[in-house]
């Protein structure tokens, strides 16, 4: 089942496009990496899909339902869950309260279920999210996406401010959840090689345009292309 | 002692109202981010509805023109009346939410404050129209037999009321604490975007919040009504002590707000009792109870002003644009002459109306300066005007100083008072400032203007102005509006208009607009934000004071009513309606203000009564929502558009400027081929050691050590969240840090951002942060003009023309930006805006330039061009610290590079060394083992 279908999307702020004519899709149960250097438009793309900023042109469909012009909370109820760069948790509420707010009414994921994925949270339920360590906060953030029982997850730079080792442990949990429940995941990540290990397919955005679309394996083999997209073309000549 | 206890108990009645209103404000603020100044007005409306229903069985609706009274029942039972009154309160609150607050949810704070003031005025007017102005006695609701506790006898209704408030408050607390919706409301208070990601509609939550807070406050005010008589203004301004309580609860805690509200009521009552004692100083007997909440507000805001939450909404729109006056002084003088002619043509009460209009225009001009130009809200301008008026009365009656010396001295008095009122603006902004000024306005009115120790109880007389024996008085026999006084008024208003016009066009005006636009960016270009704000308060108070004195001359006698808080709010309404951002707006506002020319014309022909006040309120709300620039702004826009159309028709459209591409091609291609000089460690301009920044428990920057030499380009790179922007913030004074920063052999420790900027260390911003209210040229000029008192005074009288236009074109050329400098910044592309940001930092000829991600969002060719500009700039001797993600750019242009990850500098060296450093590659791409495989 196609969980996300974006056709010729142009998006940006105040009518000025940041992302131009992008078409991507995410199927049930797969992790798709969305890569690109800073300023390439990854976050803009994610925010547009989630209805946080209005699109300039093109269509967006979540779980076969066209969602152009919908409010964020309506798209969320359609089955989308976005993990934003700021982690999307309430820092002044406790872990349990955060989970309660994100839990979907009639959803099939319980607090006990998410604790199975993140056993460390069990001891932290009554602690305020603002007092957790960075790694624990990111765990809570993922747990909040899980408990929303989504069909489609958009993950924006989960590794931000985390030591690589912590993040590398979290990615398999995400993959497990996606596989268990047939959730589609669109993963934006700056740790390219780690992301490509978990993903089956990948897109690369460069200055607002798609420059690559294919399997993660193909992309991994194109070191030169990848590094020039991140480290700049200075690397290419060597 | 027992007496004190008794009065403390009696004060619980008023305290309950403060507590409930305060709790309503807190809940409303948490759910919507709006401080509702009209909470008291909305609640007292329900009490009136309840009382009317109980006495006559009629339901009064908050409408006009169509019949507003419905006969509901001949047998109004208490329960029915209460239910209907609460239902009517619910409908009214939801209507306010849907029609006013919801459309304004992304509006600037200013518009939201102003619109809630508008609602207050509307309700006030509706109460006067439908229920009359006399206080009403309500039938008792709560049991009011006396009760005796340890020899003190008092009515028990206060205890009941306090108990009910406690129960209601506890339920509110439990609702927020335990229900999922309450939880979501708290979540929305923290972040609206996150709550929508959790699947809740922020608008729905906001509506629910208003409904709940409206119901609670209405219920308590209905129950409290019979304790004293029901009067509109008492309850409407109970919002001030309620706000004091809410601020003590830090706009967050319902329970602390409740306790603070009850305590404040008791305290006021005890103070009231103590003032009757013989030993109490006579001058401090009247109005002291109104000064108490003011003091509480000031102390609370000084203590936790900065830690109070600023609730983030999804997006924030811009303030209304300021109309840059293109008018020549000559035109203004012409308008002045027209004013005199009109004055001569009109007679009797029409002429007096025109006089009043022009005088009020002076006060409106003060709002234009304060709100329009600097974005600082003041709800005390009538009180400032009154200060000068009453001072003039003192001067003229005690020392015989009248005109012009008494006028000048009185204006000086109002300037001093106005600056004192404005001091809180240095620490707080937006709504909190509105709260403080509202409270200080009320304190001035009650404690000073109505206090017979300060103001003559037999009426503050002001004798007529004369100069060289010439009678300039307003009255003579039966002539109530003499032409000579009219001419005097026209002359002074024209002078005031010229003064404000000069101010808007001058460097001082640019600095004010820069502060309004972005305080942080203003500090970064060397503007003292504090001095600029206080200056605006001084100028505005002077103008208001002048208006106050002329009100005195025109009336011959002053009363406190002329300068009440209501007057301040009404002035604000009309200033907004006319146009808060232009001189023309102030004139329109003056013409349409109560008792002004338009009022007189309408009043002569149709019976206005209270409907004029209603129009003011409705006009204010609709202006805030649909047309924030006001009548004058809209008209000016219309003129500009039609002029544009005419130009287009005649084919005289200005030619588009050359594109950036052309410029790029003009630059030398092989900039990197030029050898970079060797940098001597003796020429170090910036030496940083052990710089550490902690946010709470998080170490954002850990013991960073770095140096920059003269003319050198130093790169600072690292993954997102590595601490690069924190580093720039710490060095330029925007974040407090530990460690040593030595710039040009002087420590920068403890210096404020604008001082650091003036010393020659300038920065740019990742998010550009241009001053969107002023032109491209002004964005640059504002960064080089120093502010001196003499320069400012000169700006008011004779604004210096831009002698520095050469600097502007040089700075634009230095960054390769070829655009029309008269254009607005919004017409630039993102890339051009970034370059303008660099130019703004460069124009002041800094020693060291810190560039925060200048290439983010630029196209490849733009980035390439930027790289060349950076190298060229450094060749003029400027040192550069470059933070950017574009590794290509950084590796190409920098002489040395430092790498930050997790707040620590993990590597440093030449570009070649960095390129080969495995730790750097790991920080960027994650797993080093994968790179080679």
TrEMBL record, chain A:
<dbReference type="GO" id="GO:0015807">
    <property type="term" value="P:L-amino acid transport"/>
</dbReference>
<keyword id="KW-0813">Transport</keyword>
<dbReference type="InterPro" id="IPR003593">
    <property type="entry name" value="AAA+_ATPase"/>
</dbReference>
<keyword id="KW-0029">Amino-acid transport</keyword>
<dbReference type="GO" id="GO:0016887">
    <property type="term" value="F:ATP hydrolysis activity"/>
</dbReference>
<dbReference type="GO" id="GO:0005524">
    <property type="term" value="F:ATP binding"/>
</dbReference>
<dbReference type="Pfam" id="PF00005">
    <property type="entry name" value="ABC_tran"/>
</dbReference>
<dbReference type="GO" id="GO:0015658">
    <property type="term" value="F:branched-chain amino acid transmembrane transporter activity"/>
</dbReference>
<comment type="similarity">
    <text>Belongs to the ABC transporter superfamily.</text>
</comment>
<dbReference type="InterPro" id="IPR052156">
    <property type="entry name" value="BCAA_Transport_ATP-bd_LivF"/>
</dbReference>
<feature type="domain" description="ABC transporter">
    <location>
        <begin position="4"/>
        <end position="232"/>
    </location>
</feature>
<protein>
    <submittedName>
        <fullName>Unannotated protein</fullName>
    </submittedName>
</protein>
<dbReference type="InterPro" id="IPR027417">
    <property type="entry name" value="P-loop_NTPase"/>
</dbReference>
<keyword id="KW-0547">Nucleotide-binding</keyword>
<dbReference type="InterPro" id="IPR003439">
    <property type="entry name" value="ABC_transporter-like_ATP-bd"/>
</dbReference>
<keyword id="KW-0067">ATP-binding</keyword>
UniProtKB/TrEMBL annotation, chain B:
<feature type="transmembrane region" description="Helical">
    <location>
        <begin position="525"/>
        <end position="553"/>
    </location>
</feature>
<feature type="transmembrane region" description="Helical">
    <location>
        <begin position="612"/>
        <end position="631"/>
    </location>
</feature>
<keyword id="KW-0812">Transmembrane</keyword>
<dbReference type="InterPro" id="IPR003593">
    <property type="entry name" value="AAA+_ATPase"/>
</dbReference>
<dbReference type="InterPro" id="IPR043428">
    <property type="entry name" value="LivM-like"/>
</dbReference>
<keyword id="KW-0813">Transport</keyword>
<feature type="transmembrane region" description="Helical">
    <location>
        <begin position="480"/>
        <end position="504"/>
    </location>
</feature>
<protein>
    <submittedName>
        <fullName>Unannotated protein</fullName>
    </submittedName>
</protein>
<dbReference type="GO" id="GO:0015658">
    <property type="term" value="F:branched-chain amino acid transmembrane transporter activity"/>
</dbReference>
<feature type="transmembrane region" description="Helical">
    <location>
        <begin position="573"/>
        <end position="600"/>
    </location>
</feature>
<dbReference type="InterPro" id="IPR001851">
    <property type="entry name" value="ABC_transp_permease"/>
</dbReference>
<feature type="transmembrane region" description="Helical">
    <location>
        <begin position="329"/>
        <end position="346"/>
    </location>
</feature>
<feature type="domain" description="ABC transporter">
    <location>
        <begin position="686"/>
        <end position="927"/>
    </location>
</feature>
<feature type="transmembrane region" description="Helical">
    <location>
        <begin position="407"/>
        <end position="426"/>
    </location>
</feature>
<feature type="transmembrane region" description="Helical">
    <location>
        <begin position="159"/>
        <end position="176"/>
    </location>
</feature>
<feature type="transmembrane region" description="Helical">
    <location>
        <begin position="352"/>
        <end position="375"/>
    </location>
</feature>
<feature type="transmembrane region" description="Helical">
    <location>
        <begin position="113"/>
        <end position="133"/>
    </location>
</feature>
<dbReference type="Pfam" id="PF12399">
    <property type="entry name" value="BCA_ABC_TP_C"/>
</dbReference>
<dbReference type="InterPro" id="IPR003439">
    <property type="entry name" value="ABC_transporter-like_ATP-bd"/>
</dbReference>
<keyword id="KW-1133">Transmembrane helix</keyword>
<feature type="transmembrane region" description="Helical">
    <location>
        <begin position="230"/>
        <end position="249"/>
    </location>
</feature>
<dbReference type="InterPro" id="IPR017871">
    <property type="entry name" value="ABC_transporter-like_CS"/>
</dbReference>
């Amino acid at each position: 089942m196609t969980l996300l279908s974006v056709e010729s999307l142009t998006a940006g702020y105040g009518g000025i496009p940041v992302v131009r004519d992008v078409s991507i899709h995410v199927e049930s149960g797969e992790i798709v990496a969305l890569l690109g250097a800073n300023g390439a438009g990854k976050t803009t793309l994610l925010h547009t899909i989630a209805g946080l900023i209005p699109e300039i042109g093109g269509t967006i469909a979540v779980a076969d339902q066209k969602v152009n012009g919908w409010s964020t909370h309506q798209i969320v109820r359609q089955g989308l869950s976005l993990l934003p760069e700021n982690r999307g948790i309430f820092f002044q509420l406790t872990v349990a309260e955060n989970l309660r707010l994100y839990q979907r009414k009639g959803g099939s994921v319980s607090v006990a279920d998410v604790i199975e994925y993140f056993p460390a949270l069990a001891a932290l339920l009554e602690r305020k999210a603002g007092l957790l360590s960075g790694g624990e906060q990111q765990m809570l953030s993922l747990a909040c996406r899980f408990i929303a029982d989504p069909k489609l997850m958009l993950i924006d730079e989960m590794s931000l401010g985390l030591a690589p080792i912590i993040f590398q442990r979290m990615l398999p949990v995400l993959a497990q959840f996606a596989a268990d429940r047939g959730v589609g995941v669109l993963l934006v990540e700056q740790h390219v090689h780690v992301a490509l290990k978990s993903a089956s397919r990948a897109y690369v955005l460069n200055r607002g345009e798609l420059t690559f679309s294919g399997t993660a394996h193909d992309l991994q083999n194109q070191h030169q292309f990848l590094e020039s997209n991140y480290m700049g073309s200075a690397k290419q000549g060597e | 002692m027992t007496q004190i206890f008794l009065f403390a108990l009696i004060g619980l009645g008023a305290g309950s109202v403060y507590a409930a209103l305060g709790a309503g404000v807190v809940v409303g603020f948490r759910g919507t981010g709006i401080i509702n100044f009209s909470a008291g007005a909305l609640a007292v409306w329900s009490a009136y509805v309840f009382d009317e229903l109980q006495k006559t069985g009629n339901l009064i609706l908050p409408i006009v023109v169509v019949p507003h009274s419905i006969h509901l029942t001949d047998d109004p039972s208490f329960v029915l009346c209460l239910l209907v009154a609460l239902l009517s309160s619910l409908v009214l609150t939801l209507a306010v939410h849907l029609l006013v607050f919801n459309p304004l949810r992304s509006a600037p704070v200013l518009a939201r404050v102003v619109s809630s003031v508008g609602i207050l005025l509307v309700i006030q007017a509706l109460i006067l129209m439908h229920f009359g102005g006399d206080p009403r006695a309500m039938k008792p609701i709560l049991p009011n037999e006396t009760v005796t506790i340890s020899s003190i006898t008092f009515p028990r209704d206060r205890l009941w009321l306090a108990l009910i408030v406690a129960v209601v408050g506890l339920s509110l607390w439990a609702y927020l604490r335990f229900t999922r919706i309450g939880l979501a409301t708290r979540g929305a208070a923290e972040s609206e975007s996150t709550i929508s990601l959790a699947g809740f509609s922020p608008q729905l939550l906001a509506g629910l919040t208003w409904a709940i807070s409206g119901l609670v406050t209405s219920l308590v005010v209905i129950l409290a009504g019979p304790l004293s008589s029901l009067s509109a203004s008492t309850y409407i301004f109970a919002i001030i002590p309620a706000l004091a309580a809410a601020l003590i609860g830090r706009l967050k805690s319902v329970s602390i707000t409740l306790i603070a509200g009850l305590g404040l009521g008791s305290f006021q009552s005890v103070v009231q009792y103590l003032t009757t004692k013989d030993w109490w100083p006579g001058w401090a007997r009247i109005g002291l109870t109104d000064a108490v909440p003011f003091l509480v507000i000031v102390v609370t805001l000084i203590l936790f002003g900065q830690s109070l939450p600023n609730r983030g909404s999804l997006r924030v729109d811009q303030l209304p644009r300021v109309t840059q006056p293109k008018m020549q002084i000559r035109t203004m003088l012409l308008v002045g002459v027209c004013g005199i002619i009109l004055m001569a043509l009109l007679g009797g009460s029409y002429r007096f109306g025109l006089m009043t209009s022009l005088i009020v225009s002076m006060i409106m001009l003060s709002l234009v300066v304060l709100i329009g130009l600097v974005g600082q809200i003041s709800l005390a301008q009538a009180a400032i005007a009154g200060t000068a008026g009453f001072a003039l009365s003192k001067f003229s009656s005690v020392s015989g100083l009248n005109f012009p010396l008494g006028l000048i001295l009185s204006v000086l008095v109002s300037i001093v008072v106005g600056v004192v009122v404005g001091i809180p603006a240095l620490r707080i902004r937006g709504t909190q400032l509105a709260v403080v000024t509202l409270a200080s306005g009320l304190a001035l009115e009650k404690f000073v203007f109505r206090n017979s120790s300060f103001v003559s109880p037999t009426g503050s007389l002001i004798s007529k102005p004369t100069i060289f024996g010439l009678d300039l008085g307003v009255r003579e026999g039966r002539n109530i509006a003499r032409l000579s006084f009219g001419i005097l008024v026209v002359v002074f208003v024209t002078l005031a208009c010229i003064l404000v016009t000069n101010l808007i066009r001058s460097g001082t005006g640019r600095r004010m607009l820069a502060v309004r636009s972005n305080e942080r960016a203003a500090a970064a270009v060397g503007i003292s934000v504090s001095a600029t704000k206080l200056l605006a308060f001084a100028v505005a108070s002077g103008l208001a004071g002048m208006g106050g004195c002329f009100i005195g001359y025109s009336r011959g006698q002053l009363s406190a009513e002329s300068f009440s808080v209501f007057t301040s709010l009404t002035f604000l309404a009309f200033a907004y309606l006319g146009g808060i951002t232009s001189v023309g707006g102030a004139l329109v506002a003056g013409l349409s203000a109560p008792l002004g020319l338009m009022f007189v014309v309408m009043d002569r022909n149709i019976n206005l009564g209270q409907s004029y006040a209603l129009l003011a309120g409705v006009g204010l709300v609709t202006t805030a929502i649909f047309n924030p620039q006001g009548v004058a702004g809209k008209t000016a826009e219309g003129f500009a558009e039609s002029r544009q159309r005419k130009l287009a028709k005649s084919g005289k459209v200005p030619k588009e400027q050359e594109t950036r591409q052309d410029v790029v091609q003009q630059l030398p291609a092989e900039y990197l081929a030029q050898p970079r000089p060797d940098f001597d460690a003796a020429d170090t301009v910036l030496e940083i050691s052990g710089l550490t920044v902690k946010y709470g428990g998080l170490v954002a920057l850990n013991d960073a050590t770095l140096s920059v030499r003269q003319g050198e380009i130093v790169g600072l790179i690292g993954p997102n969240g590595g601490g690069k922007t924190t580093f720039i913030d710490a060095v330029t004074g925007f974040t407090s840090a530990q460690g040593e920063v030595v710039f040009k052999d002087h420590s920068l420790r403890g210096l404020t951002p604008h001082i650091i900027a003036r010393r020659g260390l300038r920065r740019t911003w990742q998010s550009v942060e241009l001053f969107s209210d002023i032109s491209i040229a002004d964005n640059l000029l504002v960064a080089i003009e120093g502010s001196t008192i003499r320069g400012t005074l000169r700006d008011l009288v004779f604004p210096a023309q831009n002698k520095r236009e050469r600097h502007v074109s040089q700075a634009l050329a230095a960054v390769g930006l070829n655009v029309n400098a008269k254009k607005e910044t919004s017409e630039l592309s993102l890339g051009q805006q970034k370059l303008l940001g660099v130019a703004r930092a460069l124009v002041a000829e800094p020693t060291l330039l810190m560039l925060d991600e200048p290439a983010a969002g630029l196209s490849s060719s733009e980035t390439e061009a930027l790289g060349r500009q950076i190298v060229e700039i450094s060749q003029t001797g400027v040192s550069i610290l470059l933070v950017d993600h574009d590794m290509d750019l950084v590796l190409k242009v920098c002489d040395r590079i430092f790498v930050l990850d997790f707040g620590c500098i993990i590597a440093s060296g030449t570009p070649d060394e960095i390129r080969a450093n495995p730790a750097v590659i790991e920080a960027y791409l994650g797993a080093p083992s994968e790179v080679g495989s």
